[in-house]
Every structure is written in structure tokens, then in C-alpha cells.
């Protein structure tokens, strides 16, 4: 999956920020079941990394033009 | 029954429940890529059932009209307590071809279904598929 235009970039950034916020909330919340918390944090982190890479690749491609 | 696609090639907004057979009939072909993705979905559902996953929702280009989708986004709801089958859960964590699997608790499952999966990158609202377990 790759970002195709500025609108997709903007919306991907919004989703990325939401994922980062959810990750941070979970990181600080020790009340969640430990296994569920660990699995959720792993999943969120993987998506955060994926979207970060996509945003960076798109921004990098703009600088090459 | 899985509803027809809208004018953009997406499922109508909402979570559409379907059996694995219905999903295979609708999305498991005709391309070789779709057949391979459907095989992975079948393996994932088997592992998830063994692991004790409570709900599975499928999203991504697999559940659109695209002939050769990129991937299948999956969110799996995990319940508190230990896994029913730790080996099966570990296999899910290691991943399966074509599948982007997220294992999450209830709050984040709701976020995925109601927000993250509910619109594409152009903010077009779309539907998704829940596998009947």
C-alpha cells in the first residue's frame, strides 16, 4: 500500500496520530489484561511503523521531484 | 448474504457477517492472487479459532472489487486470560502470506471497526466482513 496524493497523505497522518495516541494510552494503562495489552501494543506498533514508512516514502518522493 | 459493491467498488458501510464458504465464493477468485489470499484467510481462521479469538473482521482491498488485491487486513479480538492454544496464537503473531493481522483487545477492536477500517485514505466510507466463527 502506498500514498498516492496529498489528501491520502493528510488522512494517513491523521490515522497515524490516532494509532500513536492509542499506543501511548495503552502503554500507561496498567489495568488492562497483560496478555491483551501486550498483543494490542505489538499490533499498534506494527501499524505505526508501517504508516510511518509510507508517509516517509511519499514525502521523500516529493523532494526528489 | 454479502451485499453487492457500491459504485466505488466497496462494500456498503457496515460490518457484514459471512461464513468462510460465503467469503470464498465472493472473494476467493477468480485471480490466482485472490485464491492464495483466500487460502491464507482459511489458515488464519483455523488458527484464530484454536487460539480462542472471539471475533475476526476482514478489510483491505481483498473485500473490494479489485481483481488482484494487495493484502487482507484482519483485526482479531482477543479476550482476557490465557490463549486457548498458545502455539496457534504464536503462529498468528508470526504472520501469514498476504495477511496483515492485528490482535487487539475490545477497545481497540472497536476503534478498528468504527474508525480505522471504516474509511479509505480518501475518507470514502466503506464496509467490511466479519467471519462467522
Distance from first to last alpha carbon of chain A: 21 Å
Rg of chain B, nearest Å: 14 Å
How many separate helices of chain A?
Answer: 2
Distance between the termini of chain B: 15 Å
Question: Main β-sheet of chain A: number of strands, strand sense, barrel status?
Answer: none
| Helix-and-strand structural type of chain B | alpha/beta
Helix- and strand-based class of chain A? mainly alpha
Q: How many β-strand runs of chain B? A: 5
Overall mean pLDDT of chain B: 96
Number of strands of chain A: 0
How many distinct domains of chain A? 1
Fraction of residues in β-strands of chain A: under 5%
Sketch the major β-sheet of chain B: 5 strands, mixed
Strand content of chain B: 15-25%
Strand order of the largest sheet of chain B: 1-5-2-3-4
Characterization of this structure:
The complex is a heterodimer of chains A (65) and B (133). With 65 residues, chain A is mostly helical. Chain A has one domain (6-64). Chain A is built from two helices and no strands. In chain A, α1 (6-28) packs antiparallel against α2. The radius of gyration of chain A is 14 Å and the shape is elongated. The model of chain A has no long low-confidence stretch (mean pLDDT 93). With 133 residues, chain B is α/β, with parallel strands linked by helices. Helices cover 36% and strands 20% of the residues of chain B. Chain B contains four helices and five strands. Chain B has helices at 20-27, 32-51, 86-94, 106-116, and strands at residues 14-18, 55-59, 72-77, 99-104, 127-131. Chain B has a five-stranded mixed beta sheet with strand order 1-5-2-3-4. In chain B, α1 runs antiparallel to α2 (32-51) and α2 (32-51) packs antiparallel against α3 (86-94). The mean pLDDT of chain B is 96. Chain A binds chain B through residues 1, 3-4, 7-8, 11-12, 15, 18-19, 22, 26, 32-33, 35-37, 39-40, 42-44, 46-47, 50, and chain B through 70-71, 78-83, 93, 100-105, 108, 111, 115-116, 121-123.
Amino acid at each position: 500500500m502506498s500514498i498516492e496524493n496529498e489528501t491520502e497523505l493528510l488522512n494517513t497522518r491523521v490515522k497515524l496520530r490516532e494509532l500513536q495516541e492509542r499506543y501511548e494510552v495503552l502503554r500507561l494503562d496498567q489495568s488492562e489484561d497483560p496478555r491483551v495489552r501486550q498483543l494490542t501494543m505489538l499490533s499498534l506498533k506494527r501499524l505505526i511503523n508501517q504508516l510511518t514508512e509510507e508517509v516517509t516514502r511519499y514525502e521523500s518522493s516529493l523532494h526528489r521531484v | 448474504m454479502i451485499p453487492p459493491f457500491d459504485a466505488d467498488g466497496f462494500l456498503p458501510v457496515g460490518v457484514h457477517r459471512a461464513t468462510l464458504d460465503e467469503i470464498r465464493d465472493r472473494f476467493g477468485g477468480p485471480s490466482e492472487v485472490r485464491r492464495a489470499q483466500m487460502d491464507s484467510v482459511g489458515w488464519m481462521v483455523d488458527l484464530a479459532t484454536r487460539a480462542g479469538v472471539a471475533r475476526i473482521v476482514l478489510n483491505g482491498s481483498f473485500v473490494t472489487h479489485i481483481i488482484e488485491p494487495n493484502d487482507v487486513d484482519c483485526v482479531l479480538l482477543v479476550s482476557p486470560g490465557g490463549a486457548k492454544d498458545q502455539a496457534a496464537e504464536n503462529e498468528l503473531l508470526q504472520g501469514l502470506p498476504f495477511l496483515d493481522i492485528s490482535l487487539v483487545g475490545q477497545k481497540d477492536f472497536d476503534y478498528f471497526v468504527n474508525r480505522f477500517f471504516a474509511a479509505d485514505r480518501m475518507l470514502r466510507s466503506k464496509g467490511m466482513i466479519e467471519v462467522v466463527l
